[in-house]
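Q: Can I see a sequence and its folded structure?
A: Here is a first one.
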Amino acid sequence: MKFIYTILALALALSASAQQAKTKQDETQSFSEYQQVAAALKPYIESAKSGDGKLSRTAFYDHADIVGSIGGQFSALTADEFAAEINKTGKSENIQHHIAWIDISGPAAAAKVEFIDWAGLRFTDFFVLYKKDGQWKISGKTYDSHSNN
């Protein structure tokens, strides 16, 4: 009987060790995916500061839509139209941003980014991203300008 308890204890210890290794591997993969999604948002974030619509456009899939409002006026744009608006807005050198959260499930992700002083306004942007062929891109964006809405 003592032998059976020893075997069971050994089996439990090995199982716990294997689970811990799997958890560490899962955590490493999860952290890597988080960094990849943050990197996919970087061209968009940088374009807010530089006013470079072409840079912003690289972050989006061709089918992407951008929906939100500024000054209470609803806006629905394609990624190309949005890039043109960034060019018109120009630089926002004092802009600050914060990635509030990123949530990932397989090849799908969502992110929330806060901006202060983008052309004098505060924005909250919600992004939906998808990983295709190993690359994350923005599939859609919804935003609030926090002014007169």
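Q: Show me another, different protein.
A: A second, unrelated one:
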Amino acid sequence: MQSLPHHYHVHARGSTEGEIRLGADGLPELAATAPPEFDGPAGYWSPETLLMAAVAGCFVLTFRGVARASRLDWARIECDVHGVLERHEGRNHFSRLTVKPHLVVRDAADEHLARQCLDKAETACLVTNSLTADIQLKPRIEVIEDA
């Protein structure tokens, strides 16, 4: 890892209506709009869905690093994130996020270590650490002997 602080720069551009384009140097552009909940069209990424994707992606990448350092033998992980956006004191914000990782391990003897790694990933995830929402971890660990 490079020494801190790290700096990230992205840009967004758009006109009076329609999709906006999100980009960063060296990355493909993404089209985004307001979500259907804010009268945007279906079928596009929105700032809200991108935030949930950032949480899920950060959790999986953080878990990967924690598992490697802990020498956990695992096969795969999927992570669903459910966010609740509410209005409080005149401001919209995400009040709750439920992070639901589904981890597959190869040996039942690794379940305890797997749970520890999932808990540590929750604590170390920099995206969720940057949010004020209540974060709930609801993991599921599955053992598949020949995974």
